[in-house]
Amino acid sequence: MSQQRHGSTPGHGAGAVPAFPDLPEATIARLPEYLRALHNLGETGADTVSSEGLAAAAGVNSAKLRKDLSHLGSYGTRGVGYDVTLLIEQIEYVLGLDQRRAVCLVGLGNLGHALAGYDGFASRGFKIVALFDADESKVGEIIHGLPVRHISDLGRVAVEEKIAIGVIATPAGAAQAVADVLVDAGVTSILNFAPCVLSVPSNVDVRKVDLAIELQILSFHEHRKASLTALPGGRSATTAGDQEAVGS
Questions:
Q1: pLDDT value, residue 233
Q2: Nearest C-alpha neighbor of 150 from the set 167, 175, 131
Q3: Torsion over CA of 195, 196, 200 and 205, rounded to 10 degrees?
Q4: What are phi and psi of 132, to 5 degrees?
Q5: Does the 101-210 domain belong in CATH 3.40.50.720?
Q6: Which UniProt keywords apply (predicted)?
Q7: Top CATH class, 13-94
Q8: Does 108 count as an annotated binding residue?
Q9: Position 90 pLDDT exceeds 50
Q10: Does the annotation list 117 as a binding residue?
Q11: Lower CB count within 10 Å: N or C terminus of the chain?
Q12: Looking at residues 143-160, what average pLDDT do you find?
């Protein structure tokens, strides 16, 4: 990601984020976890948190957390730790959560229905402003206060509502056509739940969420754990074979 923003965060003084940082992708992926943990800490009344405490709450090691936060110009205070409120502000600024972003959702099947009603969007700075589907029988249906529009209105509404992010929850066969319409309407960020790879211009960011792939990865770990306990002493077949070869 190569976004640029000049100047520092308004009102943050010495703790301000420097000129918009070009963060490693791995760091970007962990910032939402830090933010979630910080919000939970803030709700318990915590004013400060140590790097070890925040790392444990976010599920990472403290050295990695300190390196990630150093990219934001935040190093904490020795013996005190990090100011929870300030760090929340810094991370929300870098993630662009200091402004509410309009989101549209395309595809109102079972998954789309669930996403449309997900409270986590609003609490994290996102607002679903439009719903779309190609099924005429669904058009006009009110889902969580929003009417379902026909897919043919997507391009016009995306421009009118200044859609920042498009969420695709359609069948795989329809996803590319939906992505094309979003791109033509100026939407440059897409969250794709359809089980396919989208072809988009280089200036468009796509995040793919495939639940089947995640289950397959978990299946691998289950298979690996089973193989480690298949032999006496918890040795895998590969390890036992290597030891026999060494001893022969």
A1: 59
A2: 131
A3: 40
A4: -135, 150
A5: yes
A6: Cytoplasm, DNA-binding, NAD, Repressor, Transcription, Transcription regulation
A7: mainly alpha
A8: yes
A9: yes
A10: no
A11: C
A12: 95
